[in-house]
């Protein structure tokens, strides 16, 4: 696309004789022309996109410095609209045209880069930060190694981390982390320091900084195949200090910190390379190519697993302590608030179960956190996000290899007994609205169907539910009836099953007619005698009928019909005779004809 843009500009530049003279050219020919006068012209952006050489030559070092000032220095209070809005926007758009000769001037004279990056020393303005970030990204695209060298050697990366609450800075740091270079040692140490700072920022008191840090780390994990120095950068995530910060972040009192940490942990657990991440240990420093399973056997406990196992009891304590405050529902009931952080903790525990790591599953079995989560599900009746997360949590346990977790879920926690009770006795006794069904009833139906379906291929689940009292009653009454109502086609019987419906009617009709097949021709409805037809009335035709015989019969019938229906030409329907016509009992019964006199001859003419 850039080649096409360059070609278009040079193409039209060679044929300026066919177009009217540009006003920009006339202004540039004047010696006293200023940058402000040029920015005030409407066609300046189009001329820059067309690579007007006079315009490009006009933008020397001093004028580029002036453009940088427009996009990096906040205008004074008494500035007009042009200085405050128009000129900064146009300056940003001029740089965004990505004219190679214009961008190369930044690398030829690094004072321009220093002027540009000095913007990050002061508190940032949101709009100006977007303009500066746009120019920095363009410079990165033009010459990534040269710009990264300038940033690292001048320690500008430390200033970027301080402004992580801004989306514009997030884009710059992402470029620095994910920059590709043939050399695997391309400022890896400095980039690892940036990753460490991002992990620390997950506990930031600024919600935007924590969220942006987690987003950069997740992008690093998801795009590891595109990064040459991935093993070294990933090693930062598996260091003991980093793992401690990640797992301890789950115990934060702020929901946004928990959300940021859970986002990173979920990315690690869901990554296709999570085996490498989770088995990195001290031994990896000497043998990076060793098989992951061998590491698990040789090492007593990998660092990630050890850190996660250590924090699990703390997570259970957080789930058991409710301090979310009170909120009022639309039906005037005061209920306790759960908080998004606890939902995220349940989510990450479910993700840990899916990983099928023996040490983690053993710790979850030991602390019996499943029972705590089941209690939360039934306690918070109206939290639909919790109910959806719990459904995924149940699915993870049912599909896991841990028989203990399945026993804890279906039996020890009393989950099956509670859903049977709620299914057979819906309602909320002891509340202001006892007849109102809890909000989790739909999820109970989905989870029950999941249990039934999973038990078909897993005999251990079948064994557990077979010992549960009233399960068959719950399944045959509540579950089957609910599934029938929810799966029933709106408007009545399902069209896809009409064949069975008509088959039943045909069978019923066949049974009724089996005793008297000619009952419909009988004068007496209650008579069971068969219709007798005299043999002399039955005529046999030895000669079969032909099409000519049929046409003859049809013509003969039509002629007879015309003779019978031929009107009397002397008879006339008049208004005086309407009453007489109505009075004839056998002619026009129950019909009134309100019409003007019509003569038959006139009808024939029509």
UniProtKB/TrEMBL annotation:
One of its GO terms (molecular function) is protein phosphatase regulator activity. Residues 505-593 are annotated as: Disordered. It comes from Blepharisma stoltei. Keywords: Cell cycle. Belongs to the SAPS family. This is Uncharacterized protein. Signal peptide: none annotated. Residues 527-539 have a biased composition (Acidic residues). Residues 557-577 have a biased composition (Basic and acidic residues). InterPro entries: ARM-type_fold (IPR016024), SAPS (IPR007587).
